[in-house]
């Protein structure tokens, strides 16, 4: 499996969440029911190069699950020949669920090399957090996870973004804890002020979820969190740290850029359409849904 979202553990989590899951050619397809209908959509996120190999087979799988379409987002670097092959196989460009670019940090470099490559401001903030005696460690305890939930919803409300529900996070943690998922926490004056969930899989470290309090933001705990996450990945013998997304103009992107990561672009999102009329109706409804979700997050 090429990515945590393609693992058996992720499939079991999504199954308990209420999805139907289907493994095909070592790739996981998740089927989600469209509310108030009998139709579903399929997603194969961070999969290998499978969609172009046998589109008729995947159409049959989609029909079996009564899916309008199956969305493929291959975990493959941007490649014109792959995109041409996907297009020739009948797939169309779709709305991306993951950002089409991400950041990678090379964990095979020495700590000295990595620190030297960071921006001067990032190095200063790391030292500042250390001076304030911010402590960072892995803590997979129930107490730490409850604080992670509290900070997640505090952060979502403060920054106005959509967050998964408490049930979603609890089920994810139940299935991935100590296998793929690990909780990194920062404490200041005995209080947990920042929490990150890290994924480890194959040779990669990932940073999918993070939350922090606005209190004590002057101690720069998150800068030290990133540095300690990098050191954790190196201690685990991992080769690459995937920072899980990049969006131009966003604050978290600017924060990540301070660590001098490499920009990696993927081939993007491709939809295998099974029911064309309903697919285009769905795309219209999808735009309206995200508009209201973003509006709700800001209220």
Low-pLDDT parts are none
Helix vs. strand class: alpha+beta
| Tally of individual helices | 10
CATH level 1 name of the largest domain: Alpha Beta
Shape: globular
Helix-strand pattern:
HEEEHEHEEHHEHHEEEHEHEEH
Oligomeric state of this protein? single chain
Total DSSP E strands = 13
Which architecture name of the largest domain does CATH use? 3-Layer(aba) Sandwich
Q: Could you describe the largest sheet, including whether it forms a barrel? A: 7 strands, mixed
CATH H-level superfamily title of the largest domain? Gcn5-related N-acetyltransferase (GNAT)
Average of pLDDT: 92
- Please indicate the percent range of residues in DSSP E strands (runs of 2 or more): 25-35%
Enumerate the strands of the largest sheet in spatial order, edge to edge or round the barrel: 7-8-9-10-11-6-12
- Approximate helicity band: 40-55%
Number of domains: 2
CATH topology of the largest domain: Aminopeptidase
Radius of gyration: 20 Å
Cα end-to-end separation: 40 Å
Describe this structure in words.
The protein has 299 residues and is an alpha+beta fold. It folds into two domains: 4-98 and 266-298, 3-Layer(aba) Sandwich (Aminopeptidase), CATH 3.40.630; 102-264, Aminopeptidase (3-Layer(aba) Sandwich), CATH 3.40.630. Helices cover 41% and strands 26% of the residues. The protein has ten helices and 13 strands. Strands 7-8-9-10-11-6-12 form a seven-stranded mixed sheet. Strands 1-2-3-4-13-5 form a six-stranded mixed sheet, sandwiched between helices. Strand 9 (191-201) and strand 10 (204-212) form a beta hairpin. Helix 1 (8-17) runs antiparallel to helix 7 (166-176) and helix 5 crosses helix 8 (221-235). The chain is globular and about 60 Å long. The model has no long low-confidence stretch (mean pLDDT 92).
């Amino acid at each position: 499996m090429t990515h945590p979202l393609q693992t058996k553990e992720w499939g079991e989590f999504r199954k308990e969440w209420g999805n139907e899951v289907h493994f095909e050619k070592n790739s996981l397809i998740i089927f989600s029911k469209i509310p108030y209908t009998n139709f579903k959509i399929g997603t194969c996120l961070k999969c290998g190069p499978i969609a172009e190999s046998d589109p008729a087979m995947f159409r049959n799988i989609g029909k079996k699950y009564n899916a309008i379409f199956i969305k493929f987002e291959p975990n493959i670097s941007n490649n014109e020949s792959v995109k041409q092959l996907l297009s020739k196989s009948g797939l169309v460009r779709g709305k991306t669920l993951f950002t089409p670019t991400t950041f990678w940090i090379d964990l095979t470099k020495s700590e000295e090399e990595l620190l030297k490559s960071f921006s001067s401001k990032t190095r200063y903030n790391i030292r500042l957090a250390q001076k304030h005696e911010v402590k960072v460690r892995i803590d997979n305890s129930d107490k730490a996870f409850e604080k992670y939930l509290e900070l997640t919803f505090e952060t979502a409300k403060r920054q106005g973004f959509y967050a998964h529900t408490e049930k979603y996070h609890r089920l994810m943690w139940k299935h991935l804890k100590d296998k793929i998922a690990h909780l990194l926490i920062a404490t200041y004056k005995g209080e947990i002020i920042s929490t990150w969930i890290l994924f480890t899989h194959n040779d990669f470290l990932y940073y999918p979820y993070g939350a922090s309090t606005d209190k004590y933001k002057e101690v720069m705990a998150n800068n030290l969190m990133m540095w300690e996450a990098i050191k954790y990945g190196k201690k685990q013998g991992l080769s690459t740290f995937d920072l899980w997304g990049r969006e131009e103009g966003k604050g978290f992107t600017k924060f990540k850029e301070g660590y001098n990561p490499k920009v990696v672009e993927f081939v993007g999102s491709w939809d295998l359409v099974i029911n064309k009329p309903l697919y285009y109706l769905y795309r219209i409804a999808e735009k309206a849904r995200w508009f209201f979700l973003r509006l709700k997050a800001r209220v």
